[in-house]
## 1
Amino acid sequence: MVVILHTKPLLSSIILGTKIEGVIIVILITFWTALVAIVSDTRHGLATDSTGSISNGNLYYFSWAGLATGVSLLTSYMRSTFGFDMGGELRSRAERLQQWVWAGMLGLIQMGSSARLFDNHCGSQSGLGEAEMGSIMFCRRSQLGIVLGIFTAIFSTVIVGFKLGVSRSSKLPWLFTSELVLSGVIAGSQAVGVGFLTGQEGPAAPLNNLYYSTWGSLAFGLLLVGSCVENWSIAKGALRDGDEGVSLS
């Protein structure tokens, strides 16, 4: 309906750029979020089977695509209506802020997916038959996924909070050191997580939310480490050349 309104200038002014459009977008995001949670749940057997593997690729991937489209519509609405460019703010507010936000989101997905798999296959109230219950190794690795997701989300939230609280021009060497250490911890722990979670008898062995979030967390951890090391090398070279105006951020 909204697409049709774009072709009618008189009707488009009723919804486009108004609070009505914003409410519609928020409702769509709410529905898509609920849909992603439902179709990814192994108990329902819609897009994943009892092992957590994707059994209906169209439903699984298009549910995530719908959620991504809703978020994209929301950012576009905020930019056109309120002049707030979320992506631009994340890029300009502080270096690596956008990567830390993504790492935190992936950590939350990893934690939630691991917890759901643990509850569904290891809890006493799972309702599954004995053949569908997870092994001891499966359950312990699911707990590992929960721990990794929690720490990744916490570390990322702490760094994002500090970066939002200071200006881009502020010289805070301790913040850069914290970024380097925490990104290294995330990358190292997620590398271990990839081995245990996506390996044989791991909860992320089949393609599922946990598989993608684990590999995604590792990728962003490595990107953050690489960015910090690059900044450190540039600053070290500038100091060696006598340029005191370069700072780590």
## 2
Amino acid sequence: MSTQTPADKRYDRRDTTLKFVNRPDALDPLPPDEGDQCLRAEMSCGHAVTPESLTGWCRSLLDQGQYKFKCPALKEGTLQKCDAEWSYPEVRRLAVLTVEEMQYFEEHTARLAAAEYCEFKSCPSCRTYVERVDLTNLSVSCTICLALKKKKFEFCWQCLNQWKGAAPRSDRCNNHGCINHNLELLKNCKTTNLPQVAGVKDCPSIRACVTCGQIVEHDKTGCKNIICPRCQVEFCFVCLKLTTECLKTSYHFIPCRDGVAPRQTSIPVWCRK
């Protein structure tokens, strides 16, 4: 069993279920302070961690919209990332998560996992979560309302008001102010430059993932390709092609053959497998 305090989480030396190692923390690029006595435990992939570094890394993944916990350390003697996936029970145990941290991790993991496999929102009438099966239709019928009230209730997936007008529709309902805010953001976003990509200027600063439609921004560091935090598909922020297609006629740090793609006027619908 491990002991912990909110300010300083440490392993219990008597915990025989953990493998303690005398190696640097693989998740912390800074060398340990002189006289540092913090125990390091070995993860299933073989890399050493401390409770604080493991908590910090996994929480940063959740904050980026990723619910799969993967090791970012390099394989020994190589420049290849380990990328081994850790289970939540392993993370929970070796990160020595507090009760509050466990609640945060589990709520966010469940929400992110559900969002990957289905579209769901709260019905404005009964407040029950409803799944949208037809991703091209904004008009959604609540089965719970029908069962409880014996009356059909349709609402707009976009503005979350009771549906008005003809259906099906993929753009909007007839309620005043029903607009796709993400689409407006794509159409009216400012332009930006990518300093490390030669010749790329006046590129729209916000894009929709070409696979799932997730709204993303480039942090202006590194190459022109980004990985979508939702579907994990890599694409070029400049020309909006999948990275594998873009690199057939270009390289990571030079302009795309087809130039900068204009602002997007539609958002891709994710066709989940």
## 3
Amino acid sequence: MNPSTEADALNLANGFVALLNEMEDTCAVEETDGCTEVVLFPPFPFISKVKDIVGKSGITVGAQQVYYEDKGAFTGSVAASMVKSVGCEYVLCGHSERRTLFSDSDTNINAKVKKTLEFGMKPILCIGETKEEFDLDITKEVCAMQVSKDLAGVSKEDMANVVIAYEPVWAIGTGLVCEADKANEVHKFIRTILAKMYDDEVAENTRIQYGGSVTPESVDGLMAQSDIDGCLVGGASLFADKFARIVNFQPVA
């Protein structure tokens, strides 16, 4: 639920664009070769106006979630057609807060992934273990189950438009850190699951992002890893200078 007002959202968007315009390696969603693709996920009421600001700089917008029904008596829910109509290219599906705070089940997440694809948008499927599951050493089992359930019925062809984000829930806003090499191990494991579900081509080509409290201090090490293809940024994205630094990462050797 951030930023809290439209004015705050527009100020943040303007500040971010001003910084990003000083860089040369960002690009629009359909032109991703050799540059950094940037997608913002504003709260629903701010999507259109934020898009008007950032679109001129090659940045696109996405929705924080959708409901899996097209229409009906679902007060408070937002349909895929609605966010598509205001220019969203991506939709977050299964974000850790939706899973833990709103009891979003794997069955519902799977329906949202497929509904997003149906409307020509790209789902970012968020997966990851809680602190309790991490302490039980079942990270791989949790990720395998979530990937298998949440991508059930998604074709190999559709996988070209699916992004996966690994979010170790225990490392989000807790002060705890998932080291870059450990995160990379989980990403490699996720690819083995994709290879079993589809084939090696899908496993290799699917973008897998990391989303556990990414900061300007951690991004360079994360993006130097072999199997981390990007970052799903949370709190740091609420500060234009921090977010711009993350976008302009410099992988360490």
